[in-house]
Amino acid sequence: MCSIFLAQSILEALLPLAIPVVLTIILSGAISLPFLPEAVHKLTPPSNNLFAGWRIFAGIIVALSGIEAIANTASSMKLDLGSNAKNPSVAKTSTPAIFMAMVEVCIFTALLGLAMNALPGLEINGDGVNAPECPNVRDAMLRYVGAVFAGSIFGPTVGHIFAYVTMIVIAFCSFRPSIPL
Questions:
Q1: What is the pTM of this model?
Q2: According to the model, what pLDDT value does residue 179 have?
Q3: Are 159 and 144 contacting, i.e. CB atoms less than 8 angstroms apart?
Protein backbone atom coordinates (compact mmCIF):
# COMPACT_ATOMS: atom_id res chain seq x y z
CA MET A 1 0.00 0.00 0.00
CA CYS A 2 2.87 2.36 0.83
CA SER A 3 4.45 1.86 -2.61
CA ILE A 4 1.14 2.68 -4.33
CA PHE A 5 0.86 5.90 -2.28
CA LEU A 6 4.48 6.79 -3.06
CA ALA A 7 4.00 6.09 -6.79
CA GLN A 8 0.87 8.26 -6.90
CA SER A 9 2.70 11.03 -5.00
CA ILE A 10 5.55 10.90 -7.50
CA LEU A 11 3.08 11.02 -10.41
CA GLU A 12 1.32 14.04 -8.88
CA ALA A 13 4.69 15.76 -8.35
CA LEU A 14 5.84 15.09 -11.92
CA LEU A 15 2.62 16.12 -13.65
CA PRO A 16 3.39 19.87 -13.34
CA LEU A 17 6.76 19.16 -14.98
CA ALA A 18 5.09 17.43 -17.92
CA ILE A 19 2.88 20.41 -18.78
CA PRO A 20 5.77 22.72 -19.84
CA VAL A 21 7.30 19.91 -21.92
CA VAL A 22 4.02 19.24 -23.72
CA LEU A 23 3.51 22.96 -24.34
CA THR A 24 7.07 23.31 -25.64
CA ILE A 25 6.60 20.43 -28.07
CA ILE A 26 3.23 21.75 -29.24
CA LEU A 27 4.70 25.25 -29.78
CA SER A 28 7.70 23.76 -31.60
CA GLY A 29 5.33 21.85 -33.85
CA ALA A 30 3.20 24.94 -34.45
CA ILE A 31 6.12 27.18 -35.43
CA SER A 32 7.42 24.49 -37.77
CA LEU A 33 4.18 24.31 -39.81
CA PRO A 34 5.08 27.16 -42.22
CA PHE A 35 8.33 25.35 -43.10
CA LEU A 36 6.73 22.00 -43.99
CA PRO A 37 6.38 22.71 -47.75
CA GLU A 38 10.14 23.26 -47.97
CA ALA A 39 10.73 20.13 -45.87
CA VAL A 40 8.52 18.04 -48.17
CA HIS A 41 10.38 19.43 -51.18
CA LYS A 42 13.70 18.25 -49.69
CA LEU A 43 12.47 14.68 -48.98
CA THR A 44 14.45 11.82 -50.49
CA PRO A 45 13.35 8.20 -50.88
CA PRO A 46 14.31 5.88 -48.00
CA SER A 47 17.20 3.51 -48.47
CA ASN A 48 16.51 -0.09 -49.40
CA ASN A 49 18.37 -1.26 -46.29
CA LEU A 50 15.88 -3.49 -44.47
CA PHE A 51 18.08 -3.69 -41.36
CA ALA A 52 18.15 0.11 -40.93
CA GLY A 53 14.37 0.29 -41.26
CA TRP A 54 13.94 -2.52 -38.74
CA ARG A 55 16.21 -0.72 -36.22
CA ILE A 56 14.10 2.43 -36.50
CA PHE A 57 10.86 0.46 -36.07
CA ALA A 58 12.25 -1.43 -33.07
CA GLY A 59 13.35 1.85 -31.47
CA ILE A 60 9.83 3.25 -31.76
CA ILE A 61 8.31 0.11 -30.23
CA VAL A 62 10.79 0.20 -27.33
CA ALA A 63 9.92 3.87 -26.69
CA LEU A 64 6.19 3.08 -26.61
CA SER A 65 6.84 0.13 -24.28
CA GLY A 66 8.66 2.52 -21.97
CA ILE A 67 5.60 4.78 -21.84
CA GLU A 68 3.45 1.82 -20.77
CA ALA A 69 6.02 0.69 -18.20
CA ILE A 70 6.16 4.14 -16.63
CA ALA A 71 2.37 4.35 -16.48
CA ASN A 72 2.17 0.92 -14.86
CA THR A 73 4.96 1.67 -12.37
CA ALA A 74 3.35 4.94 -11.36
CA SER A 75 0.06 3.13 -10.71
CA SER A 76 -1.69 5.63 -12.93
CA MET A 77 -3.80 2.91 -14.54
CA LYS A 78 -7.02 2.10 -12.73
CA LEU A 79 -7.94 -1.56 -12.45
CA ASP A 80 -10.48 -2.90 -14.92
CA LEU A 81 -13.94 -3.76 -13.65
CA GLY A 82 -13.96 -7.24 -12.19
CA SER A 83 -10.25 -7.29 -11.36
CA ASN A 84 -8.73 -6.87 -7.92
CA ALA A 85 -5.34 -6.47 -6.23
CA LYS A 86 -4.75 -10.25 -6.31
CA ASN A 87 -5.65 -10.59 -9.99
CA PRO A 88 -5.02 -7.14 -11.47
CA SER A 89 -5.89 -6.28 -15.04
CA VAL A 90 -5.56 -2.91 -16.74
CA ALA A 91 -6.10 -3.99 -20.35
CA LYS A 92 -9.26 -1.92 -20.86
CA THR A 93 -7.81 1.10 -19.06
CA SER A 94 -4.35 0.98 -20.60
CA THR A 95 -5.36 0.43 -24.22
CA PRO A 96 -6.88 3.91 -24.79
CA ALA A 97 -4.08 5.58 -22.81
CA ILE A 98 -1.33 3.79 -24.73
CA PHE A 99 -3.13 4.45 -28.03
CA MET A 100 -3.34 8.20 -27.30
CA ALA A 101 0.33 8.32 -26.28
CA MET A 102 1.26 6.40 -29.45
CA VAL A 103 -0.72 8.78 -31.66
CA GLU A 104 0.83 11.84 -29.99
CA VAL A 105 4.36 10.43 -30.19
CA CYS A 106 3.91 9.44 -33.84
CA ILE A 107 2.33 12.74 -34.89
CA PHE A 108 4.86 14.99 -33.19
CA THR A 109 7.84 12.80 -34.10
CA ALA A 110 6.75 12.82 -37.74
CA LEU A 111 5.95 16.55 -37.72
CA LEU A 112 9.21 17.61 -36.06
CA GLY A 113 11.25 15.05 -38.02
CA LEU A 114 9.84 16.40 -41.26
CA ALA A 115 10.40 19.98 -40.09
CA MET A 116 14.07 19.19 -39.41
CA ASN A 117 14.37 18.46 -43.11
CA ALA A 118 13.68 22.16 -43.75
CA LEU A 119 16.57 23.33 -41.55
CA PRO A 120 19.26 24.87 -43.74
CA GLY A 121 22.74 23.40 -43.84
CA LEU A 122 22.34 20.32 -41.63
CA GLU A 123 25.11 17.77 -42.20
CA ILE A 124 25.05 14.21 -40.89
CA ASN A 125 28.52 13.10 -39.87
CA GLY A 126 28.49 9.56 -38.49
CA ASP A 127 26.37 9.69 -35.35
CA GLY A 128 26.55 13.49 -35.16
CA VAL A 129 24.56 16.23 -36.81
CA ASN A 130 26.18 19.58 -37.49
CA ALA A 131 24.45 22.84 -38.34
CA PRO A 132 25.95 26.09 -39.57
CA GLU A 133 27.75 27.72 -36.63
CA CYS A 134 26.31 25.04 -34.31
CA PRO A 135 28.37 21.84 -34.33
CA ASN A 136 27.00 18.63 -32.80
CA VAL A 137 23.40 19.83 -32.62
CA ARG A 138 21.89 16.32 -32.66
CA ASP A 139 21.12 16.17 -28.93
CA ALA A 140 19.75 19.72 -28.87
CA MET A 141 17.66 19.54 -32.04
CA LEU A 142 14.41 20.74 -30.44
CA ARG A 143 16.23 23.84 -29.17
CA TYR A 144 17.79 24.39 -32.60
CA VAL A 145 14.43 23.96 -34.38
CA GLY A 146 12.95 26.58 -32.05
CA ALA A 147 15.83 29.00 -32.59
CA VAL A 148 15.77 28.75 -36.38
CA PHE A 149 12.01 28.64 -36.98
CA ALA A 150 10.94 31.11 -34.27
CA GLY A 151 13.83 33.34 -35.33
CA SER A 152 12.69 33.22 -38.96
CA ILE A 153 9.10 34.07 -38.07
CA PHE A 154 9.48 36.54 -35.19
CA GLY A 155 13.09 37.71 -35.42
CA PRO A 156 16.40 36.58 -33.95
CA THR A 157 15.70 37.80 -30.41
CA VAL A 158 12.50 35.77 -30.11
CA GLY A 159 14.32 32.81 -31.68
CA HIS A 160 17.03 32.96 -29.02
CA ILE A 161 14.46 33.34 -26.24
CA PHE A 162 12.46 30.37 -27.59
CA ALA A 163 15.64 28.30 -27.78
CA TYR A 164 16.66 29.13 -24.21
CA VAL A 165 13.19 28.46 -22.81
CA THR A 166 13.12 25.12 -24.64
CA MET A 167 16.57 24.27 -23.31
CA ILE A 168 15.61 25.14 -19.72
CA VAL A 169 12.31 23.23 -19.85
CA ILE A 170 13.91 20.09 -21.28
CA ALA A 171 16.94 20.29 -18.93
CA PHE A 172 14.75 20.87 -15.88
CA CYS A 173 12.42 18.01 -16.73
CA SER A 174 15.32 15.70 -17.58
CA PHE A 175 16.70 16.06 -14.06
CA ARG A 176 15.41 13.10 -12.11
CA PRO A 177 16.60 12.75 -8.54
CA SER A 178 17.01 9.19 -7.34
CA ILE A 179 13.84 8.18 -5.49
CA PRO A 180 13.96 4.74 -3.86
CA LEU A 181 10.68 2.85 -4.03
A1: 0.69
A2: 45
A3: no
